[in-house]
Specification:
Layout: H1 2-9, E1 33-38, E2 43-48, E3 53-59, E4 64-69, E5 75-80, E6 85-90, E7 96-101, E8 108-113, E9 119-123, E10 128-133, E11 140-145, E12 151-156, E13 162-167, E14 172-177, E15 185-188, E16 193-198, E17 205-209, E18 214-218, E19 225-230, E20 235-240, E21 246-251, E22 256-261, E23 266-272, H2 279-282, E24 284-289, E25 295-300, E26 305-310, E27 316-321, E28 326-332
Antiparallel strand pairs: 1-2, 1-28, 2-3, 4-5, 5-6, 6-7, 8-9, 9-10, 10-11, 12-13, 13-14, 14-15, 16-17, 17-18, 18-19, 20-21, 21-22, 22-23, 24-25, 25-26, 26-27
Amino acid sequence: MRISVLLGLSIAACSPVTEEAPIASAPADAAGALFVAGKFGNTLAKVDLATGEQVASVASCANPHELATSPDDKHVALACYGGTSVDIFLTSDLSKVASIDLGANARPHGIVWHANGDLYATAEGRQSIFWIANPLGDANTFEYGTGKQGSHMLAVSPDGRHAWTTDLGSKTVTLVDLKTRRAPQSVEVGEEPEGIALSPDGETLWVSARGSDKAFALDPMTLAIRHEVATGDFPLRIAIRPQGDFAVTSDLADAGLTVIDLKSAEAIRTIPVSSRDEAEDRTQVTILWSPDGERIYAAETRANTIAEVDFASGKVLRRLPGAGGGDGLAIIE
């Protein structure tokens, strides 16, 4: 199972299956919009959460991956993993308003649109992080080398002074000082660390290592491991609830979510999104919390669907459109 799922993650091996319609009507309080990067179809789409329908779709760069919305919800930034740019679109109609090139072989993947208004992105092909200041204006770029292979996902401190990457190829987590440019600091964390999330107070860095079936709690500044938590099979991503009380991992080979109590650093329950037998066909990848922390969105990349999950009950409320191999997700209220 593990080998076939891993093959399913590669672009060449994946062939999307038929798109499914939503399985239920929208929750009564559903509102806002979900943005979906279709990495096989090279698209960016917008889904109305009130109706559950896709309302806009535009062509994007090759192999688009992670997404991030601006602090004012007026723009969404897209990491062009198959190219060299970060592209910015209006959330209203998906008109492209900017394209910021990061240089040869950049392959940007992880992306954060910070509360300070600046963008931060990994450039996996260059083994670096980019800080993009004033992205809707002068878009000044500053590059910081990690020196590690596969710097994939990204977290940034609340004050914008530090960033952290998970480095798949090097099996490390790297701390980058964005202000003083001190030499980056790296430590090995499990096998194939990929998911990363910083607690809202900036006090704990959480990493999911997909090859270890574990989540790790680290001291953000020393990178010392404080806790190890067993998860489901192949935890590809980790996301912290906006309230800062729980995290969930996206367990690709189980097609479920492991819920971690951050205060006790213990796994307290599992939420099945689909069956283990369906895991390879659906390929659950990116996960995203709703801004109120009541729902979780899980991208089922090969099924062209996004599962909307009620956190309290663990029930899958409906499946939303995720055409083109939906992977990267972003949301506005």
